[in-house]
């Protein structure tokens, strides 16, 4: 019965994948019973031959990629753990876990009221709790089905890529590693596979080695350990911020990227990843963003604009989530950001969703940002 339930739920997931929008919602871990088949909507033949999105039979066939394991309620997943993402549906593998501080403004705080300040909206102080996140690789076969292609856009945009500050004279230059993501512990649906190369990503075999005596049977190569040690200041997240307004949950993960000298001044760079989730069944569309950026130098900047990253995503029951990354720079070593997203309902009415305030801290100034990929 557990296997049948998992098949039915995952078959529904394939229909959402065929819509090709970031945010296919998968069943929660209750459907991922041990021994149930794990199916990937992106793999479409029993011979595991990858079909391009041009000739792929949309949402018609599922392929078994492994066997579900019981999700861990406590503890953490180890390097090499295979999983399906419970929100975006892709296949992935854990590279390593991080312990972050989750500041959830939806959870009532017993702290006393604080005076209004630029970073806090005049609300209660929020105490962070330790939470596990993971740096993961996304299967390249699944990337075409977790992208969004907006009207008039010639190329689809992937859900995530990790960016770094390039180490040369152009202080604004960035480079990206596609197919890397940050995943919360509860978003992982673990499974096992007999395939020695179950994830297709150019870094998989560089980072992981198959060892059938281990559980999971993929162990870190020295290249992964060395890469993690060298680059972890720009891979590791320390704070995660979350807040829900009218059933729209906003999660923000900021990362410090480094400092550059430009025109006899220091410019500090941060990257931030934002996930929007519609927890209701009503369809809404993001129309505008309104940011407030406070710098330790004393400046307060206001930024308004249409949509995010050039898009106005629709969040619905079938496609409830959207995730993107952006960047900000300050001429000070720290600051704060907060603001609102304006959403529109089908009847034309609007409402504002709060972006939880988050700090921009440069506590890794003693490190030198990476100049490229080193194996």
TrEMBL record:
Where's the ApaG domain? 242-367
Question: Gene3D superfamilies, per this entry?
Answer: ApaG domain
Q: Which InterPro entries match?
A: ApaG_domain (IPR007474), ApaG_sf (IPR036767), Hemimethylated_DNA-bd_dom (IPR011722), Hemimethylated_DNA-bd_sf (IPR036623)
Gene Ontology CC, one term: nucleus
Q: Check the record and name the SMART domains matching this protein.
A: YccV-like (SM00992)
Keyword annotations of the record: DNA damage, DNA repair, Mitochondrion, Nucleus, Phosphoprotein, Transit peptide
One Pfam family from the record? DUF525
Q: Which GO terms describe its biological process?
A: DNA repair; error-free translesion synthesis
Report the subcellular localization.
Mitochondrion matrix; Nucleus
From the UniProt record, which GO molecular function terms apply?
A: DNA binding
How does the annotation summarize its subunit structure?
A: Interacts with PCNA and POLD2. Interacts with SSBP1. Interacts with PRIMPOL; leading to enhance DNA polymerase activity of PRIMPOL. Interacts with POLH. Interacts with POLD1; leading to stimulate DNA polymerase activity of POLD1.
Q: Which PANTHER family match?
A: F-BOX ONLY PROTEIN 3, POLYMERASE DELTA-INTERACTING PROTEIN 2
Role summary:
Involved in DNA damage tolerance by regulating translesion synthesis (TLS) of templates carrying DNA damage lesions such as 8oxoG and abasic sites. May act by stimulating activity of DNA polymerases involved in TLS, such as PRIMPOL and polymerase delta (POLD1).
Q: Cross-referenced NCBIfam families, in alphabetical order?
A: PRK05461.1 (NF003967)
Q: What is this protein called?
A: Polymerase delta-interacting protein 2
């Amino acid at each position: 019965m557990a296997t049948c339930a998992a098949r039915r739920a995952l078959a529904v997931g394939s229909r959402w994948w065929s819509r090709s929008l970031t945010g296919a919602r998968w069943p929660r871990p209750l459907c991922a019973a041990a021994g149930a088949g794990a199916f990937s909507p992106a793999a479409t033949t029993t011979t595991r031959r990858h079909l391009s999105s041009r000739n792929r039979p949309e949402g018609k066939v599922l392929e078994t990629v492994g066997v579900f394991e019981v999700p861990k309620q406590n503890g953490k997943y180890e390097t090499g753990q295979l999983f399906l993402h419970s929100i975006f549906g892709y296949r992935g593998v854990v590279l390593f876990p991080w312990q972050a501080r989750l500041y959830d403004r939806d959870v009532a705080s017993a702290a006393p009221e604080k005076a209004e300040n630029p970073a806090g909206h005049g609300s209660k102080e929020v105490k962070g709790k330790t939470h596990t996140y993971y740096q993961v690789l996304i299967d390249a076969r699944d990337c075409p089905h977790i992208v969004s292609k907006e009207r008039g856009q010639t190329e689809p945009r992937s859900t995530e890529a990790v960016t770094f500050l390039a180490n040369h004279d152009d202080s604004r230059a960035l480079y990206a590693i596609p197919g890397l993501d940050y995943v919360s512990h509860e978003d992982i649906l673990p499974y096992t596979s007999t395939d020695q190369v179950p994830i297709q990503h150019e870094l998989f075999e560089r980072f992981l080695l198959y060892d059938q005596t281990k559980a999971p049977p993929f162990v870190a190569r020295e290249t992964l350990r060395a890469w993690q040690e060298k680059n972890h200041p720009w891979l590791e997240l320390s704070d995660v911020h979350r807040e829900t307004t009218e059933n729209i949950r906003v999660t923000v993960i900021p990362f410090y990227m480094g400092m550059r000298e430009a025109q006899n001044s220091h410019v500090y760079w941060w990257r931030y990843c934002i996930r929007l989730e519609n927890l209701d069944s009503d369809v809404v569309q993001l129309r505008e963003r309104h940011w407030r950026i406070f710098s330790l130098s004393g400046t307060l900047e206001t930024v308004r604009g249409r949509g995010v990253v050039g898009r106005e995503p629709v969040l619905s029951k079938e496609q409830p989530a959207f995730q993107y990354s952006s960047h900000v720079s300050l001429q000070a070593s720290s600051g704060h950001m907060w603001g609102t997203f304006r959403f529109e309902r089908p009847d034309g009415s609007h409402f504002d969703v709060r972006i939880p305030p988050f700090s921009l801290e440069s506590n890794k100034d003693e490190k030198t940002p990476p100049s490229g990929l080193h194996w």
